[in-house]
Amino acid sequence: MRSETIRTYKTVHTWTGIVAGLFLFVAFYAGALSIFEPALTHWASPPRTLPLVSLAQAPELIERTIAAEPQARREFTLHLGEGHEVPARLTWRMSRHDIEPHAATLDEDGGVSVTRLRPAGLGQFVDDLHRSAGLPGDVELGAAFMGGVSMLYVLALVSGVVIVVPSLVRDLCALRIGPNLKRMWMDAHNLVGIVSLPFHFFIAVTAVVFGLHDEIYDVLDRVVYEGQLKKVFQVESPFAGFGGKGGSAPMLPPTELLSRLQAAAPDFQPTAMDYRNAGTRDASVMVWGVDERQLMRGRGFAIMDAVSGEVVNASYLPGHQNGYSATVSAFFALHMGSFGGPAVKWGYFVLGLAGAFLFYSGNLLWIETRRRRDKDTGGGQSRSTRVMAALTVGTCLGCVAGISVAVAASKWLHGVVDDLGAWQWGLYYAMLVAAVAWAFMRGAARAGYELSWLAVAATLAVPLTSMLAWLVPGLGLWAWGGGIGIDLGALAGAVGMAMLARAARRRAYSMPADSVWARAGSVPA
Amino acid sequence: MNARIQLNWWGRILAGTVLGFTLALAVAGVFQWGMPPGIAKFQLVMWLVVPVWLGVLSAVFLFRDVVRAWLWLGGANVAAYALMFLLRSLVR
User: Fold this and answer.
1) A214: pLDDT confidence band, cut at 50, 70 and 90?
2) Residue B37 at interface with chain A, using a CB cutoff of 8 Å
3) Which one of A10, A229, A324, A331 would you mutate to disrupt binding with B, by most B Cβ within 10 Å of its Cβ?
4) Do the Cβ atoms of B51 and A331 come within 8 Å?
5) How many other C-beta atoms are found inside a 10 Å radius of the C-beta of residue A98?
6) Closest-CA residue of chain A to B8
7) Most CB contacts within 10 A, which of A177, A252, A329, A474?
8) Closest among A393, A403, A407, A429 to A501, alpha carbons compared
9) What residue intervals traverse the membrane (chain B) (predicted)?
10) Worst-scoring range by mean pLDDT, A33-42, A190-199, A402-411, B75-84?
């Protein structure tokens, strides 16, 4: 390839990377955590206190609930499984945005007793942060903005590959650890970038679609479908065959429905059943579940007729989809890591964290490049270098500390404050803004290790909270009912960050005074 | 900057963003009207838009100059839309 072409793509890589890098750091760090979304919510939510009605008694529970609760007749969920992660056997929501579902259990007098559940919504917070990179305002708007950011990300990937291709064979596994720090960072950046390139490519392209799909459908409707797309949606709705029959009818018991579905799809593991219009001739059940051998859109589902027990729609049942649907499911699965079970989830977690490193190191490279130029021109650090260094340190470490504080506080504040979601966001923003302000006031070098220690402390607060709950039962908190994974993960993360903090401090004391990373030269940006 | 490649960044980026998007819509339309019907085809059609769009946007820096970029992409648009309208009229 001609050298001027490569130079052009170098410019593309630098600018797309610099503009998108910090947003992508937040999206990747929160995205890596969101792989374990259910476990996070479970960590911050109090253990189940209601007795779990057995599945054999579910028909009675359903009958009594829909007799007493009209909203539940419209739609309710029967949760399968017996583990601690099951919130209650039967729940329903008052609207699509209801985050505190009602739950029913059998009572002594032939009715149901209803309680309102208050899950901590922590997984939702992390997921919203992942999709919008924490941009204030409407999450959907933030997600659309991130669709645009992801376009820059794709450009950065393509141009990055074009840049390294000529020297790829020679330099890929060369990790030149030595006095040339810029060279070392570049090697690390290239190694991580190339090794995880397929992952990044899929993430980037799918992120553009997830961010902009509503807009693209709108335009396609006009240009390609002559305004008929809505009709296609309706015809293809999985519920298209239901409605309009009216009148009541007895439903088959859930266990019977499940055994019929199992006969049709033996490898499908159901986790929940969404009933609509229960007790009528239009009653339908959307059976959600997973088949880890398949590429899934998070989960798959089948629609059954609750009266006849027939599988009405298997278009989104993993392993039973047609070519079009299976292809789209593959795109979802490759973004979310929803295939192959826990090993793939951990792999995605590691790749997500490595991706965050890629953006952090990319910014450092830009700063180091600028530094050399500053020296060549005889001046000190330019303002843009100091600003970018402070912004990078403040945003990245503030994001890490902010998420950790929001996680730990969710357990403390549960049941104490009314709007836990608002507190999660408030604490996150408070940490982020404070960290960025601190980085600007102290300079990047000092803030680099000071904020690292802040992130360590915030992350340690997560396992310490559980530890305190266990040692001091009087606090009214809860410890490890849902497993110890989150606490161990946070502990490991804190140890890793402490090592980074020590390295950053050493560097701050050993760098030449004209470096943006030297303590001596660490001036406000 | 260079004699052989006339950069004109914004002209190129605009060509890639606008004509790349319209071309991607047409390619997705060709898929819609050229492939057999099936459940979720409209979803795959929507998914096709983004890779085509980004492919064009990534390649737009390879053109010798910005006029060539607009001419080639404009021509590709005309061809793709002609094919889509032809296929659509055959199906309808």
Assistant:
1) very high
2) no
3) A324
4) no
5) 12
6) A8
7) A329
8) A393
9) 12-32, 44-63, 69-87
10) A190-199
Segment A151-161 shows an average pLDDT of 90
pLDDT tens-digit series, residues B28-82:
999 999 999 999 999 999 999 999 999 999 999 888 888 999 999 999 999 999 9
Residue of A162, A8, A161, A154 lying closest to B61 (CA atoms): A8
Q: Which residues of A touch B (CB under 8 A)?
A: 2, 4-5, 7-9, 12, 151, 154-155, 158-159, 205, 208-209, 212-213, 216-217, 219-220, 223-225, 229, 232-233, 236, 315, 321-325, 327-328, 331
Please, what is the angle between helix A37-44 and helix A122-132, to 10°?
140
**Alpha helices, DSSP H, located in B1-92:** 9-14, 20-34, 41-59, 66-91
pLDDT average, residue stretch A3-24: 85
State the pTM of this model: 0.90
Position A115, amino acid? T
Give dist(CA A410, CA A425) in Å, integer.
11
Strand order in the sheet with A311-313: A112-116, A102-106, A90-92, A75-79, A269-276, A284-290, A300-305, A311-313
Q: pLDDT exceeding 70 applies to what percent of chain A?
A: 93
Domain boundaries, chain A: 1-46+118-238+323-378, 47-117, 380-525
Token digits of residue A201: 């490519």
Cβ partners under 8 Å of residue A501, min gap 6? A449, A452, A453, A455, A456
C-alpha B43/C-alpha A223 separation (Å) is 15
Q: Searching chain A, which residue's CA lies closest to the CA of residue B84?
A: A224
Partnered with residue A304 across adjacent β-strands are A285, A311
ipTM given for this complex: 0.92
Distances (CA, A) of A220 to A107, A141, B23: 53, 20, 12
User: Can you tell me the distance from the alpha carbon of A112 to that of A57, in angstroms, rounded to the nearest whole number?
Assistant: 13
The Cα–Cα gap between B62 and A2 comes to 10
* Beta-carbon contacts of residue A460 (< 8 Å; ≥ 6 apart): A490, A491, A494
Contact yes or no for A325 and B39 at CB 8 A: yes
Answer whether residue B3 shows pLDDT above 50: no
If phi > 0 it is left, if psi is from -120 to 50 it is alpha, else beta; for residue B40 that is: left
